[in-house]
Design brief:
about 10% strand, about 230 residues, two-stranded antiparallel sheet, two-stranded antiparallel ribbon, rod-shaped, alpha+beta, 7 helices
């Protein structure tokens, strides 16, 4: 702290530790007049706080998180490996299938699924004795199995090789952002849950592929996939 004599304006820098804790007076070395010294500040410094990188809890700085028990010294945030990062960059640079190309593939697959459902419905009617009672259980049974057939078509082909027959004809493929195998679980999440959400918001989820810089629809973003050209 810089002390200044109120009589002659002589000033001098004094460490805070040398200031008294009780009221006292000092003599100016230049004019020899005395004046009261300011007291040493006894206000404790506020405790430092930090945010837990795992659960986000804000707490006083310590070695462990008071909420989740994370040991901060041992915490190492997961970083993608150089190989994974290289795969991501390579896929990001691959040419993507645009909205119209994907729409044509969707129409082809929709037509194939419709034909399969028609054939399957006729087989059910034949097995049921050739009658088709609109008031009976046959229409409900046909609808249930047609829905199952449609879901199986999309999930099986996408999970098996990332290509439905429509995508095979147009030489486009669904791939994961990290380059790993798509698999049936990820395919179910993309084709059933993701596309359901894309559809119920007035098809906006599908239209996103026309404006996204990586041609990703909403279900692509949810499942972390691209649709690339082969």
């Amino acid at each position: 702290m810089r002390l200044t004599c109120p009589h002659c304006q002589f000033s001098k820098e004094v460490p805070d530790a040398r200031l008294p804790q009780e009221p006292t007076r000092a003599s100016c070395p230049q004019c020899k007049e005395s004046f009261p010294l300011p007291l040493r500040s006894t206000t404790p410094e506020p405790a430092r706080q930090l945010d837990c990188p795992a659960c986000g809890t804000t707490q006083i700085e310590s070695s462990t998180c008071s909420s989740c028990g994370l040991i901060f010294a041992k915490y190492r945030p997961s970083q993608p490996s150089a190989q994974t990062a290289g795969v991501n960059d390579a896929l990001a640079r691959r040419p993507k299938a645009g909205f119209w190309l994907r729409l044509v593939a969707l129409l082809i697959d929709g037509f194939l699924v419709f034909m399969m459902q028609v054939v399957f419905s006729l087989l059910l009617v034949m097995v049921g004795g050739g009658g088709f009672n609109l008031q009976g259980s046959m229409p409900i049974l046909t609808q249930v199995f047609s829905t199952i057939l449609s879901l199986f078509y999309w999930v099986f082909f996408t999970g098996y090789c990332g290509q439905t027959p429509g995508k095979m004809l147009l030489r486009i493929q669904v791939v994961r952002l990290d380059g790993e195998t798509l698999g049936y679980g990820k395919a179910f999440y993309r084709e059933v849950i993701g596309k359901f959400i894309s559809g119920i918001i007035f098809l906006i989820g599908y239209l996103m592929a026309a404006f996204d810089d990586q041609k990703q629809a909403l279900h692509d973003r949810m499942a972390k996939t691209y649709v690339i050209k082969l």
